Structures are given as C-alpha cells and as structure tokens.
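Moderator note: this is an archived Q&A kept for reference. The question asked for a predicted structure of one protein chain; the sequence and the answer are reproduced below.
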Amino acid sequence: MKLTPQACSASSSRLRLRLTAAAETIVRGGHPWVFAESVRDQNRHGAAGELAVIYDRKDQFLAVGLFDPDSPIRVRVLHAGRPQKIDAAWWAARFDAAMRTRAGLFDNQTTGYRLINGESDGWPGLVLDRYDTTLVLKLYTAAWMPRLAEIAGLIQTRLNPERMVLRLSRNVERRSRTWRDGASLGQKLAGPETGAPIVFRESGLRFEADVVRGQKTGFFLDQRENRRRVESLAPGRTVLNAFSFSGSFSLYAARGGAKSATDLDISAHALAAAERNFTLNKREPAVARCRHELLQADAFAWLARKASRKFDLMVLDPPSLAKREAERAGAIRAYGRLVRDGIKHLSPGGILVACSCSAHVTAGEFFDVVRQNVAQAGRKFVELQRTGHALDHPATFREAEYLKAIYLRSS
C-alpha cells in the first residue's frame, strides 16, 4: 500500500483508495469486502468507521464503504456503482429496504427472527435480531462504533422496541475499550435492563434467549426451517439430537409426535436450558407425552461408542468445525467421522439429518462427504432433501453461505 505525499496535509479530506486490478473486478462484481493486501494506494491514514471512497484505475468512482485500519477486511462496501450521498436519509432508506424483505414472513406465532443479516442486507458486519419486544444489535467490525449512536437511534425510531441490547464480536469488544465511550458485552442501548433470558415464540413454541451472554445473539434463529422439517418427520419416532444446545430440534420433534427425544451435549448449561424450554411448553399435549432425556457427554466420543442404542431420527448439528480456511480439510474429515459413527445408532428406516454451519466447507464438499460415508457404511439411504439459508438469513456472496443440511432415510 502506498501513501501519497498529500497524506500529511490532507487529514480532513475524503479518504480515497485505489485497488489492485483483481480487487477492482471483484468489487465491481458486487463482493462486499476489500482486503488490506488489495489496497495499492490511499491518500492518507484513515480512522475506523470513516467512509472510504474507492476509485478505479481510470479515476472513476467505484464504491464507498466503511474503513477499518486494523482489520484484514480493510473496507466493507456499502455501495458500488454510481456515486450516492451517504447521509441520514440514505441510512433510513437502506434500513427500510431490509424491513420490507421480511414483510409477511412471520405472524404472531413467531416473534424471534433476523431483521438485518449483515452484508447480505447491505449492512456489512452488522446483525439485528428480534426476540419478542427485545432487539439485539451485534457488531462484527469496529467500523460501526463511531456510528453506533446514529444507527441505534434509527432503529429505535423505526421499530420502537421495548429494549435494545448491544452485542460485540470478541475482536470488536477488545477494541471498543479504547473508544472514549467504550462498549461492553450485553450493553443496554435502550429500555430497561434484563438479567433474565427473554422468552419469545417460534412457530408457536416458546423458547428462552439469553440476549446478554448466549451464543450468537442469544439463540440459533437460523435453523428455524430445519426444525420445522424435523417436526414433520417426527411422529412416532425416537429422536437423538446431537450437539443439542438448548434442545430446539428436540422440542419441535416432541410437538410433532416423537415418542422420545434425547438431547446430547457436553454443556450442562446448555442441557439445563433445554430442560427449561421443554418446561415452557408442557401445555402442549404432545410435548407433555414425549419422554425427554438429557445426556451430558462429548457428542463425538458418545457416538463413537458401541451402538447399544438405536434411534429412528437423528440430528447431527455440530458447531462450526472450520472457523478459518486452514481448518477446512480437518473439518471435512470430522463431518465424515460424525456420519459414520452416527448411523451406527440409526434404526433401519431411520432418518439422518446432517447439518453444517462452517462457511469454509462448501455445500458441495459437505454433501459429498456425507453421502460418501453413508455409502461406505454398507447401508442403503434415500436422499429426501437438501436445505440452505432461511429467507430472513439471506446469503448473497460465497463467504456468507455457511448453513446447509441434508436429509437421508435408511432403507
């Protein structure tokens, strides 16, 4: 990266960047990230959250985005194409566009869902989730910190939530301590404090969301559609929910008519949350009838044991096994091992639901390794379905495509 001679004297001028030819092409194609090594020229040092204007090799406007001098993703693109003025009206219009895409998706039986899904909704590095009357704003880049008050005010004006909570990714939380006003895990942005989990509805079921300390923004909202499919497959079946976390797949299966639902997780805290979620729904007759079992163990180790227990429906939904590209090959092997060990516990005619939330493992790679290991087990399976992202979790570029699931029935 080259700093021009004007860098020292133009500290108040607009931050201007030029990219490598390859990066120009990528940005022109709609990709929302500019990496540090792609910046070949900038007119001065920039501050986190500053608007960076990107010009092409012909000195024509290419894009504008949020600058972050300390991140490998140096610019998160807000707009590419013809120049636009990024002001309060622009932010409001972009917010309203994200809200329109969710219009009509949910009724009052579902009060937990995603309102803004980062780059795929034009808000790079920012997520907004609803849990009943509480909103959770999560930031994955420090570039949003200087605009926090402005964006929080816009959300408050447009949606008027009872409460709004700020969540920060770990890297942003560390950096936020250097800001004058700072920011902390679970900081209240609006409304009363909350010490207890928020209860919300999903497809008529009641769930807890720990919006202050829970994973993600408090709940795994992205698996809603797969949970609904599991419910439809559950009547009369015995269910194993491996890597169960707070038991959401099991609870859907119970309402769907499962005879039993077993939650398997290494975390006692997660299993306690699963038990509370079942208790919240005991008025559902089918949930009350379903035998709910909690197993605290490492799911990999438990599944690798001799298959003394069989299940009619099995959900394998591990956490991300590849958080960086270097872990991709190991993650693919681990998915294969999970499938090989899991199907030993699957009854004839049983259904296997295998999920992945690892962005560095492509859908093709995941589906291939699942089918290869099923074939090697010497049992015949029929593929029922493959799924991806729900409508409130759009994925508009490759790195955003993390969620995939495959449904297989044993013959």
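Archived answer notes: DSSP finds eleven helices and 21 strands in the chain.
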